[in-house]
Specification:
The chain contains twelve helices and twelve strands. The mean pLDDT is 97. It has helices at residues 12-19, 36-43, 59-65, 84-89, 102-117, 120-128, 157-170, 183-189, 196-202, 222-227, 245-253, 292-310; strands spanning 3-6, 24-27, 48-51, 71-74, 93-95, 149-153, 173-177, 192-193, 205-208, 233-236, 259-262, 281-283. α5 packs across α7 (157-170). The chain has 320 residues and is α/β, with parallel strands linked by helices. The protein starts with a strand and ends in a 10-residue tail after the last helix. The protein folds into two domains: 3-100 and 292-310, Rossmann fold (3-Layer(aba) Sandwich), CATH 3.40.50.720; 102-283, NAD(P)-binding Rossmann-like Domain (Rossmann fold, 3-Layer(aba) Sandwich), CATH 3.40.50. A seven-stranded parallel sheet has the order 8-7-6-9-10-11-12, with helices on both faces. Strands 2-1-3-4-5 form a five-stranded parallel sheet. α7 (157-170) links the parallel β6 (149-153) and β7 (173-177). The structure holds glyoxylic acid (2 copies). One glyoxylic acid is lined by residues 77, 98, 102, 156-159, 209.
Length: 320
């Protein structure tokens, strides 16, 4: 019988789906991130590992689990927590959960853009602290959105969805940068390709949608921040290390840019010193895909990828 280990409780639909196939499935007894040792201990000898983006899975962990391991189904679209080369070398299949979280992450990106420009979190803290003494002409002035320019860095599924919604809903002009131009999407969305440098100089809002790779680590650092308009905002719902967070804290302190809204952090779950003290930043704890709808579908998709492999087929969401 095929054995599966799930590193943490996830929405039940995927688990039920696997149980229905009569596999031997075990879920972590703890509701927390497992250590490497615990993953190896509990997953020893399994055929499939269903893991989270908070689990670092490298060659050593793969070897510790053993040679029966056929598939690592990541419960995430990003796969930067897994050593893909090590998996390839060992003939282990890696899958992710793309598509089903595109809308949720696009929605959260837009929510962050609104939150930071309208100063929602800061104003909420002010109101709750009993500081509201009546309407004032200059109280919490923020930035308008309609008609401005949004720079998308990384025009994949999520970047494209943010672009479409902002263009259609708020008459926002969309420009983008990506490693490769996507002329089909440019035409479909009516958007323009810019170099990263020109995008940063031009955009009123910059939103990051690239995967974390060695080439995208610190893609936005001191130099890039200094190119941005002092009235501009930076949004990140991709992966924390894409931004040099220390440089961002400095840029926010010195008002090099006007604000930032982040769902992901370079040293997650920790914040760089000073970040959480700033008022011109909105912080959410890596929850962009956290809707009832999306997390259920991610669970189903991760399970389906395992079932596909166990049935001898090609999984729907093959990464390597
Ligand atoms: C969330 O960050 C994901 O990659 O699914
Ligand atoms: C991720 O799903 C992306 O392609 O944006």
């Amino acid at each position: 019988m095929f054995k599966i280990f799930v590193t943490r409780k996830i929405p039940d639909v995927g688990i039920q789906f696997l149980r229905g196939k009569k596999y031997d499935i075990a879920v972590s007894p703890y509701d927390r991130v497992l250590t490497r040792r615990e993953i190896i201990k509990y997953a020893k000898g399994v055929d499939a590992l269903l893991c989270l983006l908070t689990d670092k899975i490298d060659g050593e962990v793969m070897d510790g689990i053993g040679t029966r391991l056929k598939i690592i189904a990541n419960y995430a679209v990003g796969v930067d927590n897994i050593d893909l080369e090590a998996a390839k070398k060992r003939g282990i299949i890696i899958t992710n959960t793309p598509g089903v979280l595109t809308e949720a992450v696009a929605e959260h990106t837009i929510a962050l853009l609104f939150a930071v420009t309208k100063r929602i979190a800061e104003a909420d803290r002010f109101a709750r602290a009993g500081k509201f003494k009546g309407w004032e002409p200059m109280l919490f002035l923020g930035s308008g959105i309609t008609g401005k320019t949004l720079g998308i860095v990384g025009l994949g599924r999520i970047g494209g969805e943010v672009a479409k919604r902002m263009r259609d809903g708020f008459n926002v002009k969309i420009i983008y940068y990506d490693l490769t131009r996507n002329e089909e999407m440019e035409k479909a969305l009516g958007i323009e390709y810019f170099s990263l440098e020109t995008l940063l100089r031009t955009a009123d809002f910059v939103s990051i949608h690239v995967p974390l790779l060695p080439s995208t680590k610190h893609l936005i650092s001191e130099k890039e921040l200094s190119l941005m308009k002092s009235s501009a905002y930076l949004i990140n719902t991709s992966r924390g290390p894409v931004i040099d967070e220390k440089a961002l804290v400095e840029a926010l302190k010195k008002k090099i840019i006007r604000g930032a809204a982040l769902d992901v952090f370079e040293f997650e779950p920790k914040f760089s010193p000073g970040l959480a003290k700033l008022n011109n930043v909105v912080l959410t704890p890596h929850i962009a895909s956290a809707t009832d709808e999306t997390r259920g579908k991610m669970s189903e998709l991760a399970a389906q990828n395992i079932i596909d492999v166990f049935s001898g087929g090609k999984p729907k969401n093959l990464v390597v």
